[in-house]
Design a protein that fits this description.
heterodimer; A: about 300 residues; mainly alpha; MetI-like fold; about 70% helix; globular; B: mainly alpha; 2 strands; flat; cell membrane (chain A)
Chain lengths: ~300, ~325
């Protein structure tokens, strides 16, 4: 590029940077607001409203939550159990199916592919599903009701199938000559060779599992089975939920010193989201890959 | 294997089955899951034509023909939820195309790797949040007593707004939340598609005297066309399916906001869980399922005709 135009381009680039900096600030603002409110003094909040910079730093909300952490710890426990179990089950079941569908000598591959794919085009809707889970399978208020709805993603099976097909046939054939069965080939050859795609799909699923609240809303009434996100939902809708778990706590709430509702709500959101928000951005590139790899055709 | 084609068809079927059994067994868990949790509910859509009673079950309840639909299609709700679902989704398709493409083109012009990484990450993090958490963020702005927006309005000497009661502003709040949560992810997808652009094009173009704007619109942008088409077609096919979390969590189910926030999905949930109105819920559900299915098939057929390689199936 000519030397002459260098300064002009530099100016243009600064304008772009300045613009993007403003956009970035706007994007951070909601997160900033939640954190700031969570460390604001409740008296200030009642008097002046929320503020982006706390007038007086106050960690009372966090102290209260950490002094009687039973509710949030239980929600963490439920979320970890559900996310983990659903992830392992899903990776196992879907990769097994994907392997079978990837084999060109599988006679029923086309039919089963269509059988699975059709569920992405049409579904019976929520009402029959709701009745099935509650009235026929009697899964209401059980861990299964939280886990099972999370393992039905058919889309990734096709992504895995495309990936498995790229493994040279010669490898599979030579294993067969050595006397390996399909299960052995799947387990000993295909899975180890497919770690990248399994990691990608696993990560995407894990995030979805961690953030799931819909199945809890439909099938759970018992508070000891609330996952994190659903606990957050109930607390936001009903401040009374906050005081649950504090009945037996050492701190006593009186009219003169009520529960700091607003800042505690936000503190709950921070505690529930924080760890994940710190971990996941490191895996950004996987999320893009997950959406762009492979096609469903064939 | 060809030698043995002779035996009768049953024997041949059994032999095929035997040969494919190991692979068939590998697909069995997923196939069984899909049968129970997807295909059984598909059969359950007959509820829409029945007077469903819990004690009589799906098969035992009485057929009542189109009675449920008569109620649903004559209620004002039907028009409202259809309008909102289609209207918002149409808007989302436009916003979800124009804004991410613009940002991807901007990102492409940035040479500083660090700056790029910072901008991408700040725009991307909302993708990791659930709509529940986004509802907390919305609440911190919209809370009528202490929300940031009302605090600001009061400082400016303006009248504060009761955001969870006034429906009109939500026509803007919903799209803003949508863009905020999704634009980072979409931008990253478009940006990734630009990684394949060969820099020789730009060198040749600048030798010919092309300016930056010309290079962007004539070289960079066309690289994005295929992805733009695929994503838009997919979105059009799903125009009947609302992003449930957005419409359910952010307005916090405030009945004063239904005019601008109620979509088919939220309507079904409410009829089912809060009003226990299986008749209305199943009719709306059936309506969504059938129209949605038809739209997916239709868009796919059109795409297949124009450019087969972009068709979904």
């Amino acid at each position: 590029m000519a030397v002459r135009s260098k300064r002009k381009i530099a100016v243009g680039e600064w304008v772009v940077h300045a613009y993007l900096a403003v956009v970035s600030l706007l994007f951070i603002l909601p997160l900033w607001a939640v954190i700031s409110i969570s460390i604001s003094d409740e008296v200030d909040i009642t008097k002046y409203g929320f503020s982006l910079i706390p007038r007086n730093l106050d960690f009372t909300s966090y102290r209260y939550i950490f002094e009687s952490p039973a509710t949030i710890l239980n929600a963490y426990k439920v979320t970890i159990i559900v996310s983990g179990a659903a992830l392992v089950l899903y990776l196992l079941v879907s990769s097994m199916a994907a392997y079978a569908l990837s084999r060109s000598n599988f006679k029923y591959g086309k039919a089963i592919s269509f059988y699975l794919f059709f569920t992405m085009l049409f579904n019976g809707g929520l009402v029959p599903y709701y009745i099935l889970m509650n009235q026929y399978l009697h899964l209401r208020n059980s861990y299964l009701a939280l886990i099972l709805p999370l393992i039905g993603n058919v889309w990734y099976i096709f992504i895995m199938r495309t990936n498995f097909r790229q493994i040279p046939d010669a490898i599979v054939e030579s294993a067969k000559i050595d006397g390996a069965g399909e299960l052995q080939i799947y387990y000993k050859i295909i899975l180890p060779l497919s770690k990248p795609v399994l990691a990608t799909v696993g990560l995407l699923q894990l995030l979805a599992n961690w953030n799931a609240w819909f199945q809890a809303m439909l099938f759970i009434d018992k508070s000891e089975l609330y996952p994190l996100q659903y606990l957050l939902q109930t607390i936001l809708r009903n401040a009374q939920e906050l005081s649950r778990g504090f009945e037996n706590s050492m701190v006593s709430f009186t009219a003169s010193q009520p529960l700091p509702t607003e800042s505690m709500r936000m503190a709950m959101a921070v505690i529930a989201t924080g760890p994940m928000l710190l971990i996941f951005p490191f895996f950004q590139k996987y999320f893009v890959k997950g959406l762009t790899v492979g096609s469903v055709k064939g | 294997m060809d030698r043995e084609k002779r035996p009768g068809s049953i024997a041949r079927f059994l032999k095929d089955l035997g040969g494919n059994l190991p692979l068939l067994l590998l697909t069995l868990p997923m196939a069984a899951y899909v049968f129970i949790f997807n295909y059984l509910p598909m059969g359950g859509i007959i509820i829409a034509f029945k007077n469903y009673r819990y004690d009589e079950g799906i098969l035992g309840s009485k057929w009542i023909g189109l009675e449920n639909f008569k109620f649903f299609f004559t209620s004002p709700d039907m028009w409202r939820i259809t309008r909102n679902t289609l209207g918002y989704n149409a808007l989302f398709i436009v916003l979800g195309l124009v804004i991410p493409v613009a940002f991807a083109l901007l990102f492409f012009g940035i040479r500083s790797k660090t700056a790029l990484k910072i901008h991408q990450t700040t725009m991307f993090f909302p993708h990791f949040l659930s709509w529940v958490v986004v509802a907390y963020m919305a609440y911190s702005f919209l809370n009528p007593q202490s929300g940031l927006l009302n605090v600001m309005l009061e400082k400016l000497g303006l009248v504060p707004v009761d955001w969870y009661i006034k429906a009109a502003p939500w026509a803007a709040i919903i799209p803003i939340a949508y863009v905020w949560k999704t634009v980072g992810m979409s931008t990253l997808m478009y940006y990734a598609a630009l990684m394949g652009v060969d820099h020789e094009y730009f060198e040749a173009a600048s030798l010919e005297g092309a300016n930056k704007w010309q290079m962007t619109t004539k070289i960079t942008l066309p690289f994005l066309y295929p992805l733009m088409i695929i994503l838009t077609v997919l979105a059009i096919g799903h125009i009947f399916y609302a992003d449930f979390g957005l419409f359910y969590q952010l307005p916090m189910n405030s009945s004063m906001l239904y005019a601008t926030t109620d979509v088919i999905d939220t309507y079904v949930i409410r009829a089912l869980r809060e009003n226990g109105n299986i008749a209305m819920a199943s009719a709306a559900d059936f309506y969504k399922g059938i129209v949605g299915f038809a739209l997916v098939l239709l868009t796919n057929a059109i795409v297949r005709k124009r450019s087969a390689e972009n068709a979904l199936f």
